[in-house]
Design goal:
With about 1000 residues, this protein is of the alpha+beta class. About 40% of the residues lie in helices and about 15% in strands.
């Protein structure tokens, strides 16, 4: 019953309904606004907390100014990028609506548009603001992401070197071209978006009328013509920049501008640029006529020119001019590519020499190269990590890296190669019943100490351990920052004075420790605890009694991450190594400045080079790793990270590098001068592995410096596959060892690698070494540091490569020490049942006028407690194989009882080329001794005769033959049972 049925004057209004208290429901629109406001507030608080904690982290390292400067740059670019995106688009929408015609003919087509206008009108104002705002945010983010490109452009300076095609300074390509390419691309996208917005709005509101249906308004034509002219001018600019970008374009053989590029593509790019500028004028001229004819002609002409002039003409030149005479026409351009590639990768100073390696084995052959023998490292850092873990971990939650590091220390007055590992904490190995938030973040906080062993010696198959405290002095052993530190820790006393942190194991019990350093961020205040609780999404920062007034938070603790956060413009070496400097464990991180824009230089994949998948141009072309290719690389920065307090220090290393100079200018005070490197630290700096890997990949092809020889391609090399890894296609890694190259008087600590010819033959083609020792003088690297030396083996000389050597080892019938067991039998027997074989690093040394290969072989249990132990050392020279339990015996076996050197590198005999009396085993009979002496004499006489023939000295040859006859007769007499030999000529 409705209220109208009730009498107005009798009873008045209808009886009230019992509906309860008034409803307090918030309208849906108001609730949505409240939720949105709360969300925005929480987002702003989260962003503020994140910015504050980031500022605290950088401030704890002393780099707060650098971080704020970087953030300020990103904010400025974000604002500029957002405004440059939002304003043109918003202005286009506003102008198109503002200048719409007041009356619209109501044709059937216009009636349909009127329906669209009515449909979008309720949302027009919102869309006119929201669309530019959203696109502006995206544009701002895109611009902010280019902060490195911006800073390099702003701070780059001339290099003094110019490119051969355009005559521009190299700095233009490194700094200016990347920035202007971004600017043109960015503005082109903005202009296109503005054009689309204008076309849509003008069409919907009747400002633009399709041809045949009437005339468009003058304001619409003017609006679109200005935007189109802007696009055309941007296109003209883009043509010019793309002509300059040809300097890094990769062609079939060369990188950069070739004959076709210089004589066809570059001129057409300029022609198209002029045509695009003329199109801009035609767009503006169309405003007066309000006809689509001129814009259509302009666009059509530009398209035809881009096809005919930009594509067909260069193709004709390439096909009918270049292809028939490519060698002669492109030779100067290929020479540019060779010279630029060598310069960009830092190999112009490589010292190249021919090395006609011998294959003959003679007694005393290593005597002149005795100093190189101590540098033969038998301990393989990629094999012995389980041995370190088993014998030196001390607790199950300590661990070592899978691949250990090689360093050198002065021990007992001598420079000694050592294999070193940091005893780090691994939370995953903590017993599960002891895993909780308190233990994970406040108890298990750090590792303890370095473990090192002599690299060239072993004891009963195990490493010969060195006590760091005894060998190099007392140092702070606690490792709070290391390669395994992927979690955060809270250190300090908290609410109790009892030490919490697990420390050095003593007497079977776990000692405790409280961090005393200044590393990390102080989080004693409730405000900071709340900020970190928010950023880590962890309320325990506020609730745990382990967090107290003196607590400090350690996070971002791996050396690579810390260096990358401080200097994100650096590419860091994959191998970070620990060393003791001035009583503290310091992680050394090599930093590189790289570029993709060095003109005419060939690019290589950085990750491919690091992983071993890329070791030459051929392997680069076969690899799919192309996302991170670079064509310029410098070891511009040496960085250290203190393992106790996390201090990050960056030193400028390559002061000639223009990129690091630009960054030094952008962030003053970030980089310290090389002169501040202490002598102690200098003694542990080394030539970085990743740079050497890149350079050996470059030199595999670009050791050829003549364009004609390069194109012929008859002397292309590649790095052999690692024989210890089977057929996985990974190149053999470079090895650190002390050796003297043929042109060096004394051995130096070097990084070495070998080459084989491109193709299937596994013979030695070249040998590359670099002096890796930086010396020990404060602020000044050793004069020879970084000198690359390349030995080229003549193609008519056949010397086994590492693959052939490995094949010779596993199939060798050589016996050891007079025993009947061959090496093959030994390996087969050791690799079955309860043991397994692990092949160590196969190192090659250019000694004895040939190549000596040394490979340690390890045995380990196939089950249960298993760790590798050095059991056999195999040596080969010229295809001959010998093996024994130690290096000295193996060398003597190989060189007829006298290698001319003992295992410690001490020459045996008088130190001349003359062989000395062989080292005789004990308990030999008189006849056996005579026989061994006669055999040694025969070897010497034969070698003397061959040497005389090479010199054309027939008198000396005749004398050697008589001596050989005499020694043969003596050997016949000394053989068991006696005997004689008739050497008279018939």
């Amino acid at each position: 019953m409705s209220s109208a049925s009730w009498p107005d004057d009798e009873g008045g209004a209808p009886p009230p309904r019992d509906e309860g208290p008034p409803s307090r429901r918030v309208p849906p629109s108001r609730l949505a606004r409240v939720i949105a406001i709360i969300g925005v507030v929480l987002l702003l608080i989260s962003i503020a907390a994140s910015l504050w904690t980031e500022s605290l982290w950088f401030g704890s390292l002393g780099y707060s100014d650098m971080w704020w400067s970087r953030l300020r740059t990103q904010v400025i670019l974000f604002v500029l990028g957002g405004l440059l995106t939002a304003l043109p688009i918003g202005l286009s929408l506003w102008l198109a609506h503002r200048t719409r015609p007041m009356s619209v003919p109501m044709t059937p087509g216009e009636q349909a548009l009127a329906q669209y206008r009515r449909a979008i009108e309720p949302f027009r104002r919102t869309a006119a603001v929201a669309l530019p705002a959203v696109l502006g945010i995206l544009g701002g983010l895109a611009a902010a992401a280019q902060w490195q490109t911006w800073l390099l452009w702003r701070n780059g300076t001339n290099t003094g070197a110019t490119d051969a095609e355009f005559g521009r300074d190299i700095s233009y390509y490194l700094f200016a071209l990347p920035w202007w390419s971004f600017v043109v691309g960015f503005l082109t996208v903005v202009a296109l978006a503005s054009l689309l917005a204008a076309v849509f709005t003008h069409y919907v509101y009747g400002g633009i009328v399709p041809p045949g249906r009437g005339r468009s308004t003058r304001s619409a034509f003017l609006h679109l013509a200005i935007i189109a002219a802007t696009l055309a001018m941007l296109r003209a600019w883009s043509y010019v920049l793309s002509a300059h970008a040809l300097t890094t374009q990769e062609n079939e053989v060369l990188t950069g501008v070739g004959y076709t590029g210089a004589n066809a593509i570059v001129p057409t790019k300029y022609i198209l640029a002029v045509a695009a500028a003329m199109c801009a004028g035609l767009f503006l001229a169309s405003v007066r006529s309000r006809s689509w004819r001129l814009p259509t002609i302009a666009v059509g002409t530009l398209l035809v020119l881009s096809v005919v002039v930009g594509s067909i003409y260069p193709a004709l030149v390439e096909t009918y001019k270049v292809s028939p005479s490519r060698n002669s026409l492109e030779e100067p351009y290929l020479q540019r590519n060779i010279d630029a590639t060598r310069a960009a990768h830092g190999v112009t100073g490589v010292s190249t020499s021919s090395y006609d390696a011998v294959s003959d084995v003679s007694s005393g052959q290593l005597r002149e190269d005795a100093d190189s023998i101590p540098g033969i490292r038998l301990l393989d850092p990629s094999v012995v990590s389980p041995t370190y873990q088993e014998l030196q971990a001390q607790q199950p939650y300590y661990t070592f890296q899978d691949v250990l590091d090689v360093d050198r220390y002065t021990i007992d007055g001598e420079t000694t190669d050592v294999v070193v590992g940091a005893r780090e904490l691994d939370l995953s190995k903590v017993p599960s019943d002891r895993r909780d938030w308190v233990n994970d973040h406040t108890v298990y906080t750090h590792g303890y100490g370095l473990v090192m062993a002599r690299g060239t010696q072993s004891r009963a198959g195990n490493p010969q351990w060195l006590s760091p405290d005894t060998a190099i002095g007392t140092y702070e052993p606690r490792i709070y920052f290391g390669e395994e530190m992927n979690h955060f820790s809270i250190v300090g006393q908290g609410d109790t004075k009892t030490p919490r942190e697990i420390d050095q194991p003593t007497g079977g019990e776990e000692s405790r420790y409280t961090y005393q350093g200044k590393g990390g961020v102080a989080i004693g205040s409730r405000a900071r605890q709340a900020a970190y609780a928010l950023t880590h999404r962890d309320i325990k920062f506020l609730l745990s009694d382990a967090v107290g007034p003196d607590s400090r938070l350690l996070e971002h603790r791996t050396p690579k991450e810390r260096v990358k956060r401080v200097a994100p413009w650096l590419t860091v070496d994959d191998d970070v190594y620990p060393t003791v400097v001035d009583g503290r464990v310091q992680w050394v991180v090599d930093g590189y400045t790289t570029s993709q824009n060095y003109p005419y230089s060939t690019a290589f994949s950085m990750s491919g080079v690091q992983s071993g998948k890329v070791s030459s141009v051929q392997t680069q072309q076969a690899s799919s790793l192309v996302g991170d290719r670079i064509n310029y690389m410098r070891n511009s920065v040496k960085a250290t990270v203190d393992a106790y307090d996390g201090t990050v220090t960056l030193y400028t290393w390559d002061e000639s590098d223009p990129i690091v100079s630009a960054w030094d200018k952008a962030f003053p005070g970030l980089l310290k001068d090389k002169a501040q490197i202490s002598g102690d630290l200098m003694s542990h700096l080394r030539y970085p592995e990743d740079l050497f890997r890149m350079q050996r990949a470059v030199l595999a092809d670009y050791h050829v410096t003549s364009a004609s020889d390069f194109r012929a391609g008859q002397d292309r090399w590649r790095v052999p596959d690692d024989p210890s890894r089977g057929n996985d296609g990974v190149a053999q890694p470079p090895y650190f060892l002390s050796l003297a190259m043929p042109d060096q008087k004394a051995p130096s600590w070097s990084l070495t690698s070998t080459y084989i010819p491109r193709g299937s033959r596994n013979v030695m083609a070249g040998y590359l070494a670099v002096d890796a020792d930086a010396g020990d003088v404060k602020g000044r690297p050793a004069s020879g540091y970084g000198q690359l030396r390349l030995l080229s083996v003549p193609r008519n000389t056949t010397v086994p490569g590492v693959g052939q050597v490995q094949n010779d080892i596993v199939s060798s019938s050589a016996t050891s020490g007079g025993k009947g067991q061959t090496l093959t039998d030994y390996l087969n027997n050791a690799n079955r049942g309860g043991s397994q074989v692990a092949f160590g690093n196969q190192m090659a040394l250019p000694v004895g006028e040939g190549f000596l290969h040394v490979e340690p072989i390890y045995l380990s249990s196939a089950s249960g407690t298993s760790y590798p132990q050095l059991r056999v050392v195999v040596v080969t020279f010229g295809g001959k194989v010998a093996w024994a339990e130690d290096l000295e015996t193996a060398l003597d076996e190989l060189f007829g009882g006298d290698a001319g050197v003992d295992g410690q590198g001490k020459p045996t005999g008088d130190g001349t080329k003359e062989p000395t009396k062989p080292v005789e085993p004990k308990n030999l009979t008189a006849d056996e001794k005579k026989l061994r002496s006669a055999i040694a004499g025969m070897q010497k006489a034969y070698k003397d005769g061959q040497d005389a023939l090479k010199k054309g000295d027939f008198a000396a040859y005749d004398k050697a033959q008589k001596e050989l006859k005499l020694q043969l007769e003596e050997a016949a007499k000394a053989q068991p049972g006696g005997g004689s030999v008739d050497l008279s000529q018939s």
